[in-house]
Design a protein that fits this description.
This protein is an alpha+beta fold. The protein has four helices and seven strands; from the N terminus they run βααββββββαα. Strands 1-7-6-5-4-3-2 form a seven-stranded antiparallel sheet. Strand 3 and strand 4 form a beta hairpin.
């Protein structure tokens, strides 16, 4: 499968070096107990209900402000899984394979893990159906939200929690 070109009118992206092995970053993405530790910005807590890491598999999480009452966060499906290297999922289709109209925006996220001399070259590209959705996602704080959870992911794996 080819990778669509980055389109700045439709897409948002972030990239950083994570100073941990790529395998640890992959494990933090694909192990529910590890994913729960970084998937939402602290102090909000995450719960992973479904993490079926295969093409067509579900990806369902909930989040909680108080650690007791959880509300839906992500209900999506994996489109592509390249073991240890690449995950693509969308919230435009639910884990039950039903079309969705997710709030605040429908998106397809591509996570690519590459080699870097200091660890892992981590890239996330989030694609939107139109420029208005892309702009809305940016206005809602894409870089702050995705940036903070990526920083939490980096902290987790750089401390060796996924080794």
């Amino acid at each position: 499968m080819t990778t669509p070109a980055f389109d700045p009118a439709h897409d948002l992206a972030l990239q950083r070096v994570i100073r941990a092995p790529r395998e640890d970053v992959w494990r933090a993405w694909t192990t529910p107990a590890l994913l729960e530790r970084w998937w939402v910005p602290a102090p909000t807590q995450s719960r992973v209900d479904v993490l079926d890491v295969r093409p067509g598999g579900g990806f369902v999480t909930c989040m909680s402000e108080d650690g007791r009452s959880f509300v839906p966060h992500t209900d999506s499906v994996f489109l592509l899984v390249e073991e240890g290297r690449r995950l693509v999922f969308t919230n435009a289709v639910t884990s039950a394979w039903r079309p969705a109209s997710p709030e605040p925006v429908a998106m397809t996220a591509e996570i690519v893990l590459g080699e870097h001399p200091e660890g892992t070259d981590y890239r996330a590209v989030v694609r939107h159906g139109d420029p208005a959705s892309r702009d809305r996602h940016e206005e809602l704080g894409f870089l702050d939200g995705w940036g903070s959870v990526t920083a939490a992911l980096a902290a987790l794996v750089e401390q060796g929690a996924a080794s």
